[in-house]
Amino acid sequence: MTKDVQITVDCADPAGLAVFWAEALGYRVQPPPPGFDSWDAALEAFGVPREQWNSRSAILPIEGPRPRIFFQRVPEGKIVKNRLHLDVRAAPGLEGDDRMAALETEATRLEALGATRAYRIEPDAARMESGFITMRDPEGNEFCLD
Fold this sequence. Notes:
By secondary structure, the chain is of the alpha/beta class. It has two domains: 6-73, no CATH class; 86-145, no CATH class. The protein has three helices and eight strands; from the N terminus they run E-H-E-H-E-E-E-H-E-E-E. The strands form two sheets. A four-stranded mixed sheet has the order 1-4-3-2, covered by helices on one side. The longest helix is centred in the last third of the chain and has 17 residues, at 96-112. The two termini are 30 Å apart.
């Protein structure tokens, strides 16, 4: 039996990171439950203490069978390199200069949203490398533009 997958990200600012990744991936922030015009209204009605209001957030795909991404606040900050990261497929089917130009365009767009560039690996057939750009989201989590 096939299982659904949710990707969970530990972070300091779930709402802020959800907005970044929704824009980066073409997702949408999960709307509040029916009957509420905002999450603040829902959380207040549910009796959730204000200090807990930004303890979690989620984003959903706008279309297609893609995973829900859940952001949860944790007390500790990021210390070392991620053991698991996302590859954002920004240049599928492209090769060489066309591929790297598409990746650069996407890197520039994501930098405007708060991402930072870590490094760029050039295409190299001898190493079976098609080229990619490694970036960091606003909280420093590594991801690749592939």
